[in-house]
Sequence to fold (412 residues):
Amino acid sequence: MAEYIAPIQRLIDEFRRIPGVGAKTAARYAFAVLNLSPDAAAGFADAIIGVKRDVHICPVCFGLSSKAESCEICSSPDRDASVICVVEDAKDIITMERIRGYKGVYHVLGGVLSPLDNVTPRDLKLAELDKRVREGSVREVIIATNPTPKGDTTAAYIVRMLEDSGVRLSRLAYGIPVGANIEYADDVTLSRAMEGRRFFENKSGI
Amino acid sequence: MAEYIAPIQRLIDEFRRIPGVGAKTAARYAFAVLNLSPDAAAGFADAIIGVKRDVHICPVCFGLSSKAESCEICSSPDRDASVICVVEDAKDIITMERIRGYKGVYHVLGGVLSPLDNVTPRDLKLAELDKRVREGSVREVIIATNPTPKGDTTAAYIVRMLEDSGVRLSRLAYGIPVGANIEYADDVTLSRAMEGRRFFENKSGI
Fold:
């Protein structure tokens, strides 16, 4: 490996902490920072400190909040607290919010069940979900875990946990992406699309 | 665009200052930083401050130095100060050092001549190179600017500037990369390889 002077090598090592950033990319980033003005570099450093200092976990949904109390979504009067969308990570809330139509609230599990990685129900916010559903006036729980084996296992666990709670349980539909060609869909997606096929009412014809 | 809470959006914007980092990548990096321990995040922030504070420009070669005086290469008794390799950027020194065989010193121009971008000889360390060559006991100047139109122009400028100085002037050989196939070489590289062809001594056969 090439030899960088100590302060540069140190910054390269820090950039390499980010998953997916290799040695060459980290070096390019370090030199980009070196080319910033001292003020801009100070701002960058401060933003890193700030993200750790000013980002809080919402005590209701475990999503990210800019205040120590409940987050913008949980505390909004416009949101319907009787519908909870369960997601794996806080990031997924941003993704779900993109569809705009959803007016319910969220519950962040903080991961998925994975016995091989020692992630058990106790490591996720599952007991908190159970409590939230049984204590509040929740009508529906929409499970939005990813369509992966671990996401499926976690969804199945939630269904079992909540099936006697009386709330409606559903999971996001998985199938052919809009605009995609059936020819190029993989087998698993295709069989999921077949299982999840929607029947038309007789009246509406085929 | 998705809406992130302010401290995260701020860090995303900082990451986007790095050339080549787009919105999605910056968001991924910001969340990776959010997942660091507070100590690790503080270390990252400090490394950014450190690279601006502790990296100096060598007053001899204009490369990067971890001290305010001349850099490790210029102050090393093992390096031959009579051979100067002229490079565009400080980063290029790291690249050249990879071949290990080179025992001379360097001179960083800090860019290439580019009239369209208002980069004139005065914006580069060309007068400093001229002074260094004429005042010192320099024997050879190896021009290692990139084989681009701007790199070529800059090399031609240096040759004109130093041709009456009495030192040997050379430029890195450009041609087919080792291990590459002639079939896939582009026309410019191929004609450079032809121009730079090396003649075998009659004694050594073909």
